[in-house]
Prior knowledge:
The complex is a heterodimer. Helix content of chain A is about 35%, strand content about 30%. Chain A is α/β, with parallel strands linked by helices. In chain A, strand 2, helix 1 (about 25-35) and strand 3 (about 40-50) form a beta-alpha-beta unit. In chain B, helix 1 (about 20-35) packs antiparallel against helix 2 (about 40-60) and helix 2 (about 40-60) packs across helix 3 (about 110-115). In chain B, strand 4 and strand 5 (about 130-140) form a beta hairpin. The chains are: A alpha/beta, B alpha+beta. The interface of A and B includes residues 53, 57, 58 and 86 of A.
Amino acid sequence: MEHAVREEQGNLVVSFEGDVDLEHSPKAREVLLKCVAEGKNVFVDLSAVSYIDSSGVASLVEAFQSSRQRGTRFALVAVNAAALRVLELARLDKVFTIHATLPEGTRGGA
Amino acid sequence: MPEFEIKRVLQLRFPARAAELKGVRDAVREAVEGCGCSAKSTADIVLATDEACQNIIRHAYRGESDDVIEFEIEHRGDDLVFSLVDHAPAIDPSRVQPRDLDDIRPGGLGTHFIRRVMDEVEFLRPASGRGNLLKMVRRID
């Protein structure tokens, strides 16, 4: 699993690539919680995630709950079909805010 | 006698470590696709069997170790039969239950995924009398 964090107009965009599985989800959790702790809105790009399991989903849930406690936004972006299926199985597809693309106002100005 | 041939399509033996699971998933995917499962069913089965391996690592062996997981898939007529054997102390199946999904919290989803994907899930005693045998059946769509 690879990850990248970039700031766009005051928001943090976290991108994961590869397998977010038992081996790598501790790192995903650490990255997500650190981003949320900065007090900014966090958008998680899952377009390049090839596989996500219950431990990866748990990392997303924990960061989501942490952001709610802080009153910041936490949303998923560009969730591919494989990841969406896992969220559906967990019935979390209706819990998370999911955007097809980064919402207007969070993209870097060109 | 069954009217269908029982064909073993995968047999693996690997240490109970997270780093092993990607290779296991790749092997399961190839074996299950070879039995005629759709792409969607294959992905579901890969997830459920991965979660079953994780449960063994996390709960039966109580963390990563060099203890062994034995994993076998048999193609029996319209069914795929998945057998996972560990050598950990016997678990209490009543404690391996999916949690209420309305309770939004991290963790506890693996067992739910297994129950959603598989048609039958059974905890048995291995023939050796030691450890645990998880038997799961999924009909081929």
